[in-house]
C-alpha cells in the first residue's frame, strides 16, 4: 500500500491549518488542558472531551464485549502478513461499531475513543519478560512486517482513518518489569539500529502510524518519554514522523522519582514537552501552565503539540458534521463472521513442536481421554493480558468434550495450582489433587496435559502478581507442581500430549524427550479450545512457526539486565536451541524445487528476485512458509537473519510458484556510527522452510538451499542520527 493511496494523508496540511486556527483561539490554560490523556471539553470552541487511552493488542480491549483474538505472540506465530492485516480490519470495524454506540449514549470515557495504543513492537529479546506476550517475537524483520500490516488494517486507506494505531514502547524496552521505572537500558548504536528500531521505523515510514508511545525506562541515560535522541533526532528529524507522541502512563513522574534525572515535576514535564512528547498519559502535564509562565517551555511548543493532536482527531473525522463510518452498526461487533475468522486465526497460531505419529487423533481409537492440568479448563489461559471480553469462551477441556461428544469419555482433573503447592488453602498436605490425577491416569487411554501460565502471573508490572518478579519469569521452568504432573503422566506408559498455554517459551527438555506430542498453544483467544481440539483430531492442519526460540535451559540466556544482543535470540545465540525460531511441524509434507536467484551480485539501488516452487507432498491441505535468511559479511554480523517470507496454501499434490524480492538493504548491516553499510565480500542467501541451523535440519529432515551473493564494494546506503552525543 503506497503513501499516495492513503487519502487522509493528502489532507494533512488542510487539517494542520484548521488545527492552527483552533489553537489560536485558546487561552494558555485551555491549551494545557488538551495535553493530558483526558482532554477536557472546551465548549466555546466546540471541542468535546476526548480520552486518548484505548487498547487493542489482540482485539478491542477493556471496553466490554469484543472479539478476543489470540494474544499477539500467537498472532506472530502465523507468519501471515495478510491475515494480520485482516485482524486489524476486524478490530477497527469493532472499534467503530462500539464507538458509534458509545457516542450515541454520550459515553466518552477511557477505552471509548479511537486512538488505540497498539501494536507493541518491542523486541522479545528474552523469554523471561512478562510483557513479551504482547509482542510479535524476537525477530526485527518479522515484527516489522506484521506491525505494518496490522497498522494498515487498523487505519485503512480512505479519506479518514478508521482507527488510529500506535507503536510502543519507544525504544529499547523489554524488561525487567520490576525495574522499569528506574532502569537504564544501555545499548550500542549498532544494536539500536539493527535490532531495537526496525519495527518502529517500518511503522512510521511504511505504515504511517498515527502515534508513538515512549517507554518507561531510560535508554543510554535519557528517559525515553523525554529523549531528544529518540523523539527529535530519530523520530522527527531522521524518519519524518508527523503524528503524535504520548508518554507511557505516569512515566513522566519517573523522571524525578525513579530515574532521578530531574529535581521535580516541573522539570520533568518541561523535559518531556521540550523534547517532543505531545500528550501525557497521566496528570503531570497540568504543570505545563507554570512551565510556560516561568519560561521553561515555549508556548509555541505547546501549540506544536496540539497541532499534532488535533490533526489526528481530524483525520479520524471527529470534527466532521457527519461522523465517518457511522454506518457501522453495533451488530458488527463480535459478529458471527468475526467469530468464524477468530477460530481460523486460532488454528493458524498453533505450533506443532513434536509428533511421534500419535497425531492426528482418531475419534474411535480412545475410549477414555484424560485431560489434566491447571490450564485445561482455564479462561485466563485463553487470553493473556490487555484483553476484551468475549461473548463466549471455549476452554481446552470444553473443546475436547464438544468435539468427541459421545464417542469417548473425557475425565478431567485440574491437577495442581499454577504456582502454589496446593489448590485448597485448608488442606493439611500439599499436592492435594495427586490422588485424583492418579485415578484419571489409570482410567484413561490417552492423556492430554494442559500446562503453562496465565496473565495473573505473566504480564505487566502492576497487572500480574509478583509470583514471577512483577510479571517476569524467574526461569524457564513450568512453575509449582506442573513438572511433577507431566512426569506422572509420562511415567504411566500411556500416550501423552502436552499443550503449553503461555505467552512465552518454556524449558521443553523433559517434554521433548518423553511426551508423544508437544504443541505450543500460546494464549489462543476465546475460540482457542475449539481450535486446539479440531487440530488434535485432524480437522485442519498445523501451520504455525515459532516467532521466538525455545531455549534448552535458563542458563543459556545472557543476563536479563544486559541489552546487548550478543548471545541473544537465534540471530546471535551460540548454544543450540531445543526448538528454533521459524520451526513448526505439519500433518503434511512440503517440497521446495526450482529455486533461482535473479543475480548473484548485489549493490546499492539493486534488488534480487528469488523464485521457487512449493509442492504439498502429503495427504492434508495446509500452508507452508517460505523463509529467506541472509548471512552478511561484516564485523559482529549476526549468524543469519530473516529477510523475506511468504505463505502459500496448498491442497494435497498441488504446486505453486512463489516470488520474493530482496533489496540491497537486506544484505547490509548498521555500524556504531548508525551507518547502514554493504560490506565488500560474500553473503549467503538461504531459501527454505526454516532457518539454516543444524537443529532445524535435524527436526525437519530438510535443508535450505544456499546461494553465494557477491558484494563487490563497501557502500553506505543510509545514515542515521541516533548517536547519543554526550
First-last Cα distance: 39 Å
Question: What is the CATH architecture annotation of the largest domain?
Answer: Alpha-Beta Barrel
Molecular shape: globular
Radius of gyration: 26 Å
Arithmetic mean of pLDDT: 97
Q: Main sheet, how many strands, which sense, barrel? A: 6 strands, mixed
Total count of strands: 24
Supply the helix-strand structural class.
alpha/beta
Question: Beta fraction of the residues?
Answer: 15-25%
Uncertain runs: 1-5
- CATH hierarchy, class of the largest domain: Alpha Beta
Would you give an account of this structure?
The protein has 726 residues and is an alpha/beta fold. The protein folds into 3 domains: 3-325, Glycoside hydrolase, family 3, N-terminal domain (TIM Barrel, Alpha-Beta Barrel), CATH 3.20.20.300; 334-541, Rossmann fold, CATH 3.40.50; 590-719, Immunoglobulin-like (Sandwich). 28% of the residues lie in helices and 17% in strands. It has 22 helices and 24 strands. Strands 9-14-13-12-10-11 form a 6-stranded mixed sheet, with helices on both faces. A 4-stranded antiparallel sheet has the order 18-17-22-23. It has a 3-stranded parallel sheet with strand order 3-5-8. The radius of gyration is 26 Å and the shape is globular. The relative contact order is 0.12. Residues 1-5 have low confidence and may be disordered.
Amino acid at each position: 500500500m503506497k503513501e499516495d493511496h492513503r487519502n487522509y494523508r493528502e489532507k494533512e496540511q488542510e487539517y494542520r491549518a484548521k488545527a492552527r486556527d483552533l489553537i489560536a483561539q485558546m487561552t494558555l490554560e485551555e491549551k494545557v488542558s488538551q495535553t493530558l490523556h483526558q482532554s477536557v471539553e472546551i465548549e466555546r470552541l466546540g471541542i468535546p472531551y476526548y480520552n486518548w487511552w484505548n487498547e487493542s493488542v489482540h482485539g478491542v480491549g477493556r471496553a466490554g464485549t469484543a472479539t478476543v483474538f489470540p494474544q499477539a505472540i500467537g498472532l506472530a506465530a502465523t507468519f501471515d502478513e495478510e491475515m494480520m492485516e485482516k485482524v486489524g480490519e476486524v478490530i477497527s470495524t469493532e472499534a467503530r461499531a462500539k464507538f458509534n454506540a458509545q457516542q450515541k449514549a454520550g459515553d466518552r470515557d477511557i477505552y471509548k475513543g479511537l486512538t488505540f495504543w497498539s501494536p507493541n513492537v518491542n523486541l522479545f529479546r528474552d523469554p523471561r519478560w512478562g510483557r513479551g506476550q504482547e509482542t510479535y517475537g524476537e525477530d526485527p524483520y518479522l515484527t516489522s512486517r506484521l506491525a505494518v500490516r496490522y497498522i494498515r488494517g487498523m487505519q485503512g486507506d480512505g479519506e479518514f482513518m478508521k482507527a488510529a494505531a500506535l507503536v510502543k514502547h519507544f525504544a529499547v524496552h523489554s524488561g525487567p518489569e520490576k525495574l522499569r521505572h528506574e532502569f537504564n537500558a544501555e545499548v550500542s548504536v549498532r544494536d539500536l539500529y539493527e535490532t531495537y528500531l526496525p519495527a518502529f521505523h517500518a511503522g512510521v515510514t511504511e505504515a504511517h502510524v498515527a502515534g508513538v508511545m515512549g517507554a518507561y525506562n531510560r535508554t543510554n541515560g535519557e528517559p525515553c518519554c523525554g529523549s531528544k535522541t529518540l523523539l527529535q533526532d530519530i523520530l522527527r528529524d531522521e524518519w519524518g514522523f508527523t503524528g503524535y507522541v504520548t508518554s507511557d502512563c505516569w512515566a513522566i513522574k519517573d523522571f524525578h522519582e525513579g530515574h532521578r534525572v530531574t529535581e521535580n515535576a516541573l522539570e520533568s514535564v518541561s523535559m518531556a514537552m521540550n523534547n517532543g512528547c505531545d500528550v501525557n498519559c497521566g496528570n503531570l502535564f497540568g504543570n505545563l501552565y507554570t512551565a510556560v509562565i516561568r519560561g521553561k517551555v515555549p508556548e509555541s511548543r505547546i501549540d506544536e503539540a496540539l497541532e499534532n493532536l488535533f490533526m489526528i482527531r481530524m483525520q479520524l473525522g471527529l470534527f466532521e458534521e457527519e461522523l465517518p463510518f457511522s454506518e457501522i452498526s453495533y451488530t458488527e461487533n463480535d459478529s458471527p463472521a468475526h467469530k468464524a475468522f477468530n477460530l481460523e486465526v486460532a488454528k493458524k497460531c498453533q505450533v506443532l513442536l513434536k509428533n511421534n505419529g500419535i497425531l492426528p487423533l482418531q475419534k474411535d481409537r480412545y475410549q477414555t481421554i484424560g485431560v489434566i492440568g491447571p490450564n485445561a479448563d482455564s479462561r485466563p489461559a485463553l487470553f493473556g493480558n490487555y484483553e476484551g471480553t468475549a461473548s463466549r469462551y471455549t476452554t481446552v477441556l470444553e473443546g475436547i468434550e464438544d468435539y468427541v461428544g459421545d464417542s469417548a469419555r473425557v475425565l478431567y482433573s485440574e491437577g495442581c495450582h499454577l504456582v502454589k503447592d496446593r489448590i485448597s488453602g485448608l488442606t493439611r498436605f500439599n499436592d492435594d489433587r495427586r490422588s485424583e490425577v492418579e485415578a484419571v491416569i489409570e482410567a484413561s487411554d490417552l492423556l492430554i496435559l494442559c500446562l503453562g501460565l496465565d496473565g495473573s502471573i505473566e504480564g505487566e508490572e502492576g497487572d500480574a502478581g509478583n509470583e514471577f518478579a512483577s510479571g517476569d519469569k524467574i526461569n524457564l521452568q513450568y512453575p509449582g507442581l506442573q513438572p511433577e504432573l507431566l512426569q506422572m503422566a509420562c511415567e504411566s506408559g500411556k500416550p501423552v500430549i502436552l499443550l503449553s498455554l503461555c505467552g512465552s517459551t518454556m524449558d521443553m527438555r523433559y517434554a521433548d524427550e518423553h511426551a508423544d506430542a508437544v504443541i505450543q498453544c500460546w494464549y489462543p483467544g476465546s475460540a482457542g479450545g475449539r481450535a486446539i481440539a479440531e487440530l488434535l483430531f485432524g480437522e485442519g492442519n498445523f501451520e504455525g512457526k515459532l516467532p521466538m526460540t525455545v531455549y534448552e535451559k535458563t542458563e543459556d540466556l545472557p543476563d536479563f539486565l544486559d541489552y546487548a544482543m550478543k548471545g541473544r535470540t537465534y540471530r546471535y545465540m551460540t548454544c543450540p536451541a531445543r526448538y528454533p525460531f521459524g520451526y513448526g511441524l505439519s500433518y503434511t509434507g512440503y517440497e521446495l524445487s526450482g529455486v533461482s536467484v535473479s543475480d548473484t551480485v548485489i549493490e546499492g539501488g539493486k534488488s534480487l528476485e528469488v523464485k521457487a516452487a512449493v509442492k504439498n507432498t502429503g495427504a492434508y491441505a495446509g500452508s507452508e512458509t517460505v523463509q529467506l535468511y541472509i548471512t552478511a559479511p561484516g564485523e559482529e554480523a549476526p549468524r543469519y537473519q530473516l529477510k523475506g517470507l511468504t505463505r502459500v496454501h496448498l491442497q494435497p499434490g498441488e504446486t505453486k510458484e512463489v516470488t520474493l524480492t530482496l533489496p540491497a538493504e537486506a544484505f547490509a548491516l548498521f555500524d556504531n556510527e548508525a551507518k547502514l553499510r554493504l560490506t565488500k565480500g560474500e553473503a549467503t542467501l538461504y531459501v527454505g522452510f526454516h532457518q539454516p541451523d543444524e537443529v532445524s535440519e535435524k527436526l525437519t529432515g530438510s535443508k535450505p538451499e544456499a546461494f553465494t551473493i557477491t558484494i563487490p564494494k563497501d557502500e553506505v546506503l543510509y545514515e542515521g542520527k541516533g548517536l547519543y552525543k554526550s
